[in-house]
TrEMBL record, chain A:
Species per Swiss-Prot/TrEMBL record: Jeotgalibacillus soli
Protein name: 4-oxalocrotonate decarboxylase
Keywords noted in UniProt: Lyase
InterPro entries documented for this protein: Fumarylacetoacetase-like_C, Fumarylacetoacetase_C_sf, Hydratase-Decarb/MhpD_sf
GO cellular component, one term: cytoplasm
Start and end residues of each Fumarylacetoacetase-like C-terminal domain: 73-258
Gene3D superfamilies per the UniProt record, alphabetical: Fumarylacetoacetase-like, C-terminal domain (3.90.850.10)
Any Pfam family: FAA_hydrolase
A GO term for molecular function: 2-oxopent-4-enoate hydratase activity
TrEMBL record, chain B:
Protein name: Fumarylacetoacetase-like C-terminal domain-containing protein
Keyword Lyase among UniProt keywords: yes
Gene3D superfamilies reported for this sequence: Fumarylacetoacetase-like, C-terminal domain
Domain of life where this protein originates: Bacteria
Length: 262, 264
């Protein structure tokens, strides 16, 4: 496959994001045989386009980190994408549905490293040793594909559905917490809609960061100090609607909220 | 009329007793008695328990069931139910479960309350529960059904002692101050593999809400929740099927771990 073709698809996905218009998944017609490696090349083109537009990377994010999602997509390994500065929404503020296509929200734990972390063979313990802070977050995902329907390569090419993120304002040192046991509830308009504990993310959110460092190593890259890293949904993703008051509460980590408008 | 009701209550209790005797699930009570009311279903349960007590068993606590929205939706109900814990239902932490003790077991993880003061409804609130609590501990509940293939409606499970089976207390007793029970996280393992996670709020928004509901429900029967009773407050995640040889373990934030193994 030519890199020109990958660039065209990256541009198509970027346009879909900017114009908030869903597109047919790539594997439906454009490249039915798209591989995971090729999908990451498309993602890289998409990231480059965003950087050319003046955006900067806040940090990488992990997706498909729950057993349920991995089984559903029939994969052995999670996937990763990138959060950009224009995706960050202030805690407690509002987000308009008009900015997105069909957004869903999930509750996550984010990491900030104080040292660079390069694979291979990074384990969760080394992640914790290199972590400056952990903080709670809401991630809003928004596939650019019709009806949120995609195969694994499709979602990788689409920057793993990254759309918006809300970070909580409470930073905690990782050694103060048992992150796999952090109880988390995701409520909308006062009703608990999804829940779980940190262990839902690959057994422990630090395992997710470790796996990310090792996956990045394969492409000659690494995790950098100061990046805010999203580890993956503790809860399932819930479709957002106009008027939703979204609150995620985390044991000992505080809460993160956002209001959805039309 | 009252006599007739009594007769069918006895008949239904005998029907359930057969499941224990034959060690095999029986037809749902709601098939034998389509008009079975919730009230009468509790009468069947109480009669069963009364017979157990007459046979020498002791009531050591209560359990609250159907505390998650998912379970309530599954059975099409909008309230929990409760059952009685008897002394022979206790399994020590890390212990083994004899095959003969269960029919079609499932395992779930819960927070157990032990009270220091009695609670008497009506009008008991979650705050009253917290103030009356001596300590909480993590627990595994082995739910089981005497109805074949778990084909239960609300009335079936109520009559069947709220599908109680066995229970395991673990971890270490913690007083409830400094704990936000609603946000306590839990991870659940079957044979070493993480199968689900949960949080305190899965039980009616907060485990103390479940105990308050129980105290108020029991007041309808003139029953008081006593100091020292073991109160299983409701599952933090979905029940998982148990097969012979399976090993279950739950880890709770702040409370510790609890585990149990089923005999091969």
């Amino acid at each position: 496959m030519s890199s020109q073709k990958f660039k065209e698809i990256a541009k198509l996905l970027l346009d879909a994001e900017i114009e908030k218009k869903e597109v047919l998944r790539i594997t439906a017609d454009k490249i039915p045989e798209l591989t995971v490696d090729e999908a990451y090349l498309i993602q890289k083109e998409l990231i480059n386009l965003k950087i050319q537009q003046g955006l900067s990377v806040v940090g990488p994010k992990m997706g498909l980190t729950s057993r349920a999602k991995m089984k559903q997509m029939n994969v052995e390994e999670p996937i990763y994408g990138y959060i950009f500065d224009n995706m960050v929404v202030q805690e407690g503020s509002s987000l308009s549905l008009s900015e997105l296509i069909h957004p869903k929200v999930e509750a996550e734990i984010a990491f900030v490293l104080d040292k660079d972390l390069a694979g291979p063979a990074i384990s969760g313990v080394q992640v914790l040793a290199a972590t400056k802070y952990v903080l709670p977050a809401l991630e809003i995902i928004d596939s650019r594909y019709e009806n949120f329907q995609f195969t694994l390569p499709d979602v990788i090419a689409d920057n793993t559905s990254s759309a918006r993120v809300v970070f909580g304002n409470q930073l905690r040192r990782p050694e103060e917490l048992e992150l796999d046991l952090v109880g988390t509830t995701l409520s909308i308009n006062g009703e608990i809609r999804a829940l779980g504990a940190g262990g839902a993310v690959l057994g422990h959110p630090a395992h997710s960061v470790a796996m990310l460092a090792n996956m990045l190593h394969r492409e000659g890259s690494k995790l950098k100090a100061g990046q805010i890293i999203l580890t993956g949904g503790i809860t399932e993703a819930i479709l957002l609607e106009n008027g939703d008051e979204v609150v995620a509460k985390f044991d000992q980590l505080g809460q993160v909220s956002i209001k959805i408008t039309d | 009329m009252a006599n007739e009701l009594k007769k069918s209550t006895k008949m239904l209790a005998d029907h359930l007793t057969n499941a224990y005797k034959e060690r095999q699930g029986v037809t749902p009570l709601t098939e034998l008695e389509p008009e079975l009311s919730i009230q009468q279903a509790y009468e069947v349960q109480l009669l069963m328990i009364q017979r157990e007590v007459e046979a020498g068993k002791q009531i050591v606590g209560k359990k609250i069931g159907l505390t998650s929205l998912a379970m309530q939706k599954l059975l099409g109900v909008d309230q929990p139910d409760y059952g009685h814990l008897l002394d022979d239902m206790m399994i020590e932490n890390g212990g083994q479960i004899d095959k003969k003790k269960v029919l079609q077991p499932k395992v779930e993880a819960e927070i157990v309350f032990v009270l220091k003061n009695e609670l008497k409804g009506p009008n008991v609130t979650a705050t009253d529960v917290l103030l009356a609590t001596n300590y909480v501990v993590p627990a595994l509940e082995i739910v089981d059904s005497r109805i074949s293939d778990w084909k239960i409606q609300l009335q079936d499970t109520i009559a069947d002692n709220a599908s109680s089976g066995l229970y395991v207390l673990g971890g270490r007793p913690r007083s409830i101050d400094q704990l936000d029970l609603g946000q306590i996280g839990m991870v659940f393992f079957k044979n070493g593999e993480l199968v689900n996670t949960g949080v305190g709020a899965a039980a009616l928004g907060h485990p103390a809400n479940c105990v308050a509901w129980l105290a108020n429900k029991l007041s309808e029967y003139g029953i008081t929740l006593n100091a020292g009773e073991v109160i299983l407050s409701g599952a933090l995640s979905a029940a998982v099927n148990a097969e012979p040889g399976d090993y279950f373990q739950a880890k709770f934030a702040h409370l510790g771990e609890v585990s149990v193994r089923f005999d091969k």
